[in-house]
Amino acid sequence: MPDALLPVVVQDVHTGVVLMLGYMNAEALAATQESGYVTFFSRSKQRLWQKGETSGNVLRVHALRLDCDQDALLITAEPHGPVCHTGDDTCWGENNNPSTHFLAQLEAIIHARQAAGDADGSYTARLLASGLNKVAQKVGEEAVETVIEALGDNRERLLEETADLLYHLLVLLAAKNVRLEEVEAVLQARHSK
User: Where exactly does CATH 1.10.287.1080 map onto the chain?
Assistant: First the structure.
C-alpha cells in the first residue's frame, strides 16, 4: 500500500536517546534513503517534509530498521541541532547531551577492539592481549596517579589522570566481561536505599 503511513521512531545514533516520532509513506522512505536525511510525510501539510528544511536542524541517517511485525520503523540518526520545533533536544523535552553518554560509547569502542583482537593494532587490543594482570596493574597505576594529582594544584593534570583511570577501568571491565550498565545498576540500587 503506497499511501499507508508507517510510524517512525528516530533515535540518536550516538546517545541512544529517542528524539522524535514521525510518519513515512513509501515516497518519504525512498526520499530518506536517497538523500541520507530523514524525510517524513507531513500529515498537516499533506506533503513530504525533510526534517530541518526550514530550521536547518536535519537528521542524518545512520541506519533504518523495521520492527518484528514490519509495521514501524526505527531510524538511528545524527541530529544537527535541536530536534523539536520548540527548540528542545527531543520532542519529549529530554536533554540529549552526547558528553553524558560518552562512557557508553567508549565502552562500545573497547568491546569492538577486544573482538577484533591483535588484528586491530590499537593500544586497547594490545593491552587486552597482555592479560588480566597487566590490565589490572594499569588500573592501579592510573588510580595512584589520579590520587597524586588530586593532592596537587594542577586541575588539567587531574582531569587527564582521571580520564586515564576511567579508560583503563573500562578496559578492565571488558576483560572481565562486565558491562558498565551492570555497575550503574549497583549504583542505582545503592542510591534508592
Answer: 99-191
